[in-house]
Amino acid sequence: NTLLKAGGSSCSCPPAQLMATDSDGDVIMTDADQPAKAVDAGAEGEVASADSAKAPAEDRGPPPEERVALAEAAKEAGNTLLKAGDSAAAATKYKEGIELTELLLEKGPSELGEDLQTRGVAVHVALRLNSAQACIKQSAWMDAIDHASKVLLIDKDNAKALYRRGSAAAQLDTETRLEQARADFARVAQLDTSNREAREQLQRVKERLKDLKQREKERLSAAMKGGLYQEQHDKLGKQQAAYEEEVARRKEAGEDEMSFEDWLKKEKEREDERKKQQKEEMEKRQEEARKEEEKRLLSEENSRRAIEGLSELSLEEWQVQQRAAAPRKEDVVKTDEADLDEEERKLLQETKSKGYYHGRLGKVLSNAAPTPQQVSADAAASAQNGCRAGSEWNQAGTWEEKDTTAWVKERLTACLQQAKINLPEALLPSGAPAVVTAEVSKVKSLTGEGQIVTVRKQPKHGYNFEADLSFSITVNGTNGDSGEQTFNGVLHLPDLMDAVQPQDLKIEGKWKGSGPAEHLRLSAEGWVDKLKESVRSQVVAFRKEYSEKR
Fold it and tell me: Which residues contact 211 (CB under 8 A, 6 or more apart)?
């Protein structure tokens, strides 16, 4: 190295190749043209021979101890650059150290010695963490995520790696990355309950996820504009907005909370009362108009009678006269049945007793007439295999609707009640192991409607519901930590409909009473999130079953 710095060299370098030294006195190359062939200095300072190129990759370069020392120096140099604000140069320095130590990760203590291996892993982790920080400063979010993820492969609970990966992922406006950021910040807050920044970041990410899902919901609604349930979707959205305003008003006024179902009931009562008042007012106006019309007609009649020299009529007398002049039932002209032939008389009789459709049901000279038929199990299976949707009339391409509300409510209830998670090896915030079970204990309410619409042999399975699910979480400390604890709450599903995919399904959780203690609340919210995923899985199962219904 000394001879090389002094200008002596046993190899020939291109004229444009310049040499310089860094702050530690190591030789580095400038950004001039790169040599056609890299030259490596061996451990003894000798120039590498051509034969060394044939050696295995792990045998090239400095020995392990020197690699660790050089990596530590690269880390310190990178830290100095990072503090000075040159994050790009710092990232380059960190990369040098990472490349030096990466090969050492594959070697065990028997090859390196325990102390050297510990030093090598420690400096590699520090270089990766610092690289993630440098990438964040350069807005290189994916690179930052990659560096932090490499650290987590070595130490899955490294708080710095979790926080930095979460910080980078939070900058990417996709649901997958925001979910990753949420999980990372939640884990940091769980590992370090005093980390206020992690809790604040977790809250921000949750709000962004909520906004993102709302935008996606609006996009789906816009895509379905003019669809079968658009009017219902709009009505539900307006009701939800009005309910939220009422909740805010009650909270500000210090009034008791009201569930969405109770609010809808009261709104319906108010709407019914309003319609009743409107009807009464309309009937009153109609009655007044009728009386005015009677007075006008009576005045005209009395004027006519005065011209003819007749006495004037009172209102009551005129009304009696009008009723007497009205045609009687027996005066209504009927078609003489004598003018009808046998078939027409039979048709008329059937129509009077049952109505035209039912009267002629057995007389349609066509196999397409919807006559009742007994269906055997074999016939039903054959029809299903033939993928025939709807009645035979619908095979020609007509529109057919089938109300499935009762069936959907029954099957949705059964599926949602199966939502459950078991965590036999959960960890409490104290670090103690526990067995955690979370499940939907009851479908508290399920309101809405479902129908299958068949057009041109293609069925569309529609449903539009709102649900409230009661849930419970049971925590058993295996080491006797706090014994058994049970927490209850409610999951609210405002948009349980065919237009919303299960993965986008909005589920709002609310504790009953005070809920878990403060030190356990974050963990409990994580368990509730897992239960929500189980609920979404059950909705997937329901949709699959529903899609096969005809």
Answer: none
Q: Which of 182, 215, 248 is the last residue of a domain?
A: 215
Name the 3-class secondary structure at 233.
helix
Report if residue 16 sits inside a domain: no
For 23-59, write each residue's pLDDT tens digit.
Answer: 433 433 333 333 333 333 333 333 333 344 334 444 5
In a domain, 290, yes or no: no
Q: Which long-range contacts (CB under 8 A, 24 or more apart) does 487-490 make?
A: 487/511, 487/515, 487/516, 487/524, 488/441, 488/512, 488/513, 489/515, 489/528, 490/444
**Residues 441, 473: Cα–Cα separation, whole Å:** 10
The H or E element containing residue 464 is strand 458-477
Q: Closest Cα to residue 126, out of 104, 103, 157, 148?
A: 148
Structure tokens at 306: 């005065």
Range of the domain at 446: 399-517+524-547
Domain count, the chain: 2
pTM over cut 0.85: no
First to last CA, the chain: 83
126 in a structural domain: yes
* 40 within domain boundaries: no
